[in-house]
Design goal:
CATH architecture of the largest domain: 3-Layer(aba) Sandwich
Helix content: 40-55%
Distance between the termini: 29 Å
CATH superfamily of the largest domain: NAD(P)-binding Rossmann-like Domain
Number of helices: 8
Number of domains: 2
Length: 259
Amino acid sequence: MDLGLAGRRALVCGASRGMGRGIAARLHEEGAAVVLVARSADGLAAVVQDLSALRDAPVAWVAADLTTEAGRHAAFEACPAPDILVNNGGGLSPGHYTEWDRAAWQAAFDLMLLPAVEMIRLQAPGMAERGYGRIINILSRSVKSPHAPLGLSTAVRTGVAAYCASMARELIGHGVTINNILPGIIDSDAQHAHIASLAAASGRDVADIRAARAAANPAGRFGSVEEISAAVAYFASALAGFVTNQNLLVDGGDFAGTF
């Protein structure tokens, strides 16, 4: 199936590992001209090498911290006119509401909300002027199904979804869509770190926690980075021009609700 991605410019944030790396690889394979953003220059260089083996085409990158204004502007300068913007970044370790003081809330906003909001503010007007754009945010299933230990990150990620919902109807008239991917338990670097933190807090074995989490999912397994990347590729494609303001769960059926 031709997704119409050949020649499209894609700015992928958080692209040095995990889901961001997989998304960049899928868009590159589909023919997009990919620009990678992450803090680690070494990590990005490794991704470029891997992507070059998939398809003989140049891959641009910029090492930038998107939690800073300077980093966001560096990303904008590296790709000032993308057709596709993928907002993806780090998360937080589990905690308890009694631990989340003002400083914790501010740090969470700086890490997970402001980078996405500011990248959209920088890029969406140009997309609208050019009459084409695809904005995809990688959030979490907790946006639809909150989990107490992830309450801080859930609140902030839900803020991203609400912010995008507020502008989706305006932008669709200019050919720009905004959609969110809500991953469940995905076999990624972030999931590995999350399981490690659970093991450290509980004293349980990492392998036991991993097996229990897989067994608790209706699919009986973890999702793959490739399954997330496929969903992103669809939202980024020419086929999804009439789809906006959607929150797509990719969670193996873990969310039991209808809506």
